[in-house]
Structures are given as C-alpha cells and as structure tokens.
Amino acid sequence: MKKLFKVFLYALIIGLVLYNSVSISKLSGLKNEVPDKFDATAYAQLLWKNRMQGKLDSAVELSTLIKEVEANQQMALDKYGNALGIGNYRYVLVKAIVNVTEIKADELQVKYQFENKQIDAVLATEYIYGNAVRDASGLVTVKDFSNTDDLNGISEAMNDKIRKEVLPSFKKAIQKGQKVQLVAAIELNKAFVKWNGLELIPIQLEILP
Q1: Would you state the pLDDT for residue 118?
Q2: What pTM was estimated for this model as a whole?
C-alpha cells in the first residue's frame, strides 16, 4: 500500500511540473506574438509630409470634373474618384477658386463660377469628420491594413491636422467677399450627382488679394 502511494505521489509531482512548464512556455510565446500597436497619427503625418503635396498638385479642376461628369459620369468618376469600399460614393480631390458670400460659425457659404452660371457650395470650417480626405487622396488602400480601426484612425488623424493646422489662421483672416483658392475633398453619390450645395472639405487654402 505504501509503495502504491509513493508511485501515485511521484506521478502527481511529475504531472504538476510538466503542466507548469507548458503553461509558462505558452504565456511567453503569446507575449512575443503581440504586435506593436499601430500609430495612426504618426502614419498620417508621414503620408502628409512625403506624399500629400503631390496629390494636391495633381487635383482636378472642379470645372473639368463637372464637364467630364456631365459628358460621361461613369468614366469621369472612375478616372478621378476613389473609394475604399463598394457602394455609390466616390471621393475626389478638386481645386477651385471660390468667392465667399457668407461666414457662419461652422462653415462658409461660397459661390463657384462655372461657365455662365454660379454654383452655390459650402466650405466646411468646423466639422471635419468622415473619410472624405483619406479616400479622396488615394494614399490609403484596404489591402495595406488588417482592420477598420487602423483605417478610421488614419482618417481621424488627417481630419485633426486640418482642424488644428489648416483652418485656424484661415478662419481668423477670411472676410466676406474675398476669393479663396483651395484644394478640397468632395463626396459624390453616383446615383444622384448634384453640384449645388456641394460640400468642400478643405485641405489647402489661400486667400487671394
């Protein structure tokens, strides 16, 4: 009986040692497999510093976009538009000169001269949210990221840069009646493209003399 008890005790001790060693090994492995957290702000800053200006320089003239959309909407949106997901919405970088007709707390009412008519538009100056800037720039693709949190983080970092660095000095200086040369992101719905009431999300702004 004593011998049987000793065998059982030895077996129990060996089992506990093996169990603990396996547990420690697994925890160590998991720790090494945890990746560093993606820094969306740093990534967006690098994009802005190294690649954004080239995109702004190549933005399509708003008048050109309007003409080409009216001539062949599908071809024009395929040519100039970007979107990370499927659906009707396309995002485009446009350049234009607009005239400020009214200054509000969170936006400017502006007019854009197109041929022999004026288009009423809105220049956002406060609520810079969503994915328009990220998608219109064409600098980010879904295949480069494993989850939507990273993609949304890039959008927010870009929007935050506009709110904090692009808009404050502009809002202090702008006056009614002035002309503004801008590059902006716009959202177009393929199912219902309209130009009046177009919202311009500013990326680059210059008040003209």
Answers
A1: 95
A2: 0.81
